[in-house]
Amino acid sequence: MNPAVGLFAFLAVTLATAVIGFYGLRISRTTGDFYVASRTVPPWWNASAIGGEYLSAASFLGVAGLILLSGTDALWFPVGYTAGYLMLLLFVAAPLRRSGAYTIPDFTEARLDSKLVRRVTSLVVVAVGWLYIVPQLHGAALTIRITTGLPSWVGSTAVVVVVCLTVVAGGMRSITFVQAFQYWLKLTALAVPVVFVAMVLAGNGVEPSAPLPINPTGQASAGAYNHISLLVALLFGTLGLPHVLVRFYTNPDGQSARRTTLIVLGLLSVFYLFPTISGALGRMFAPELAQSGQADALVLLLPGKLVGGTAGDLLSALVVAGAFAAFLSTTSGLVVSLSGVISQDLFGGSVRGFRLAAVIAAVVPLGFAFMTDTLALAGSVGLVFAFTASTICPVLLLGIWWRGLTDAGAIAGMLTGALLCGGAMVAGTLMGTGNAPAWLAQPAAWSVPAAFAVTVVVSVLTKNRVPASVNRVMSRLHVPERPVATER
Amino acid sequence: MTRVRVTAPRQSATAAPGQLPYPREAAEDSDAGKIFIRSLIRSQLRLALVVACGFLVILAVFALFLVYGPGVAETRILGIPLDWLVLGVGIYPVIGLSAWLYNRAAARNEARYRDLVEDK
After folding, report:
1. Distance between CA A401 and CA A393 in Å, rounded?
2. Which end of chain A is less congested by CB atoms within 10 angstroms, N or C?
């Protein structure tokens, strides 16, 4: 591929992000404006922003790559990513908006009236955020290497630098606009090339070089345990992702939080059609990418390979732009929510503290990214979901729906989940991909129930620690807001 | 106009630590109101569980059908294998429909609660 294409696309996305950030900045000038604006963000904008932030490297590159490798087994990934939002809608969206909490530690502290719970939750949230940023940086490294031929570290470092600059300069302001723009950019960047490639193939009457149902590398189909464990991770992991929660705060009330989530589900469903088609085209027309270990780059290489010429270059530029939009939006969303947590707990919430925290939040995962190897993107993000589902999910769900939750139960549950799931992740990595048994490679099916069980049992044993404020907090979470007209 | 950087929720500055910064719900003051709130929470939880279980059952039926359904492996519609169509396209409308039905029912539960509380 022409190296200039990749570079140009990267610069264009960075520039567009900065321009829209600036445009949004002019709308929201003061603190008051920020809050007023945040209450009038229409559900469509908000939903696009949530979609923009959620669709990460794993969705943009990883899903198609995994479909190329393992076919229908991989189709469960986008189903799980989308259905995770259904669970979020059912159990979390409206109550969490009504809680008024801004981050997950805010929520657990208010619900359980305990500073210690807040600290433990903060640690878990930071761990989740860092784990989630690493695959984004791997995706950026891969994209830069494949499209420009530059060394891998350039890609991940560039993303960290751009994210640090935007977050340090702009903080939280105007980010809704940027994220909303990036959803539509990602959709276009994936949909247009895929449709174009399919039309060219159909127009030229090209015959598939390999049948769709057979895995190009001869990889065996995953067992039922893998599917169930993966679905548990994705269904229950989504509702604990730190960067997703912040977006719900910009909904005016609980009911609009639900409406927004419904639109998000629609946007995700439309988006995931295209990685699926892309993966299917790859299996039929470019199966050699799977053998050469470039599966994750399928989306990037497809237009150049199957269309070629100037049209191929233009389409490639579009895809690369979309890929960088994915890395930048997810990483900046995570960095913003992590630096909120870090600065409040370590630096007392000052502006300087927020900037310092943003740098910490972005640079530490860069170190991880250098030390670790690029796994299959969708797979490593799947593990992060498993970790979230075993740590944050039990506390969040039980906190919203069960009066009996205590601070001791919450802490015990989070630590159990973190130890079991984190231990399985470390052990699985040490054994190497492919050697680890299924129950270690996909721990969610047993680590999530274990975390729930420990949380409930310890809470029941420490009944006397149920906070006095529990009735008040529960009614705050669930009672619908009064219509605006009758509000004082 | 001064510019202030926003790094944290506004409420945390004014509310006492560990307390949520909203006005007190009037219904909390009476025993009947407390019962209304409890029953609202219970009905919302029941609704969420019913929709979640229903969706998971449908998902399981889809998965079992794809594995054990007679002739699934050979069936093609417009040249696309059936299992690809079901997993790649067919499940998404089910997710959307579940979400839409849930939203309507949840809003209805809340409207019923408001009617009860305001009738008193």
Report:
1. 12
2. C
Q: Any CB–CB contact under 8 A between B36 and chain A?
A: no
Distances (CA, A) of B80 to B22, B87, B89: 54, 12, 11
- Nearest by CB to residue B83, choosing from A72, A90, A109, is A72
Q: Looking only at Cα atoms, what is the longest distance across chain B? A: 71
Instruction: Give me the architecture of the A3-228+242-375 domain, per CATH.
Output: Up-down Bundle (1.20)
In the block, residue with structure tokens 């979390």: A92
| Identity of the residue in B34, B40, B103 whose CB atom sits nearest the CB atom of A478 | B40
CB contact under 8 A, B8 and A102: yes
Check A354 against B96: CB less than 8 A apart.
no
Q: Which residues of B touch A246 (CB under 8 A)?
A: none
Q: Do B41 and A173 touch (CB under 8 A)?
A: no
Q: Do the Cβ atoms of A354 and B63 come within 8 Å?
A: no
Among A228, A234, A226, residue whose Cα is nearest residue A389: A234
Q: What is the value of ipTM here, to two decimals? A: 0.84
Structural domain boundaries in chain A: 3-228+242-375
Q: Which residues of B touch A107 (CB under 8 A)?
A: none
Non-local (6+) Cβ contacts of A413 within 8 A are A391, A394, A395, A398, A451, A452, A454, A455, A458
pTM of the model: 0.86
Domains of chain B, residue spans? 28-119
In tens digits, chain A (488 residues) has pLDDT values of 677 777 888 888 878 777 766 665 555 444 444 444 455 677 888 888 888 888 887 788 888 888 888 878 888 889 999 999 899 999 988 888 888 777 888 889 888 888 899 989 999 999 898 888 888 888 888 888 888 778 888 888 888 888 887 777 765 455 677 778 888 888 988 888 888 888 888 777 777 776 777 777 666 667 778 888 888 999 999 888 887 777 777 777 788 888 889 999 999 999 999 999 888 888 888 878 777 777 788 888 888 877 777 888 888 888 888 888 888 888 888 888 888 788 877 777 666 777 788 888 888 888 888 877 656 666 678 888 999 999 999 999 999 999 889 999 999 999 999 999 988 888 887 777 667 777 887 888 899 999 999 999 999 998 888 888 888 888 888 888 765 444 33
* Token couple for A375: 């796994």
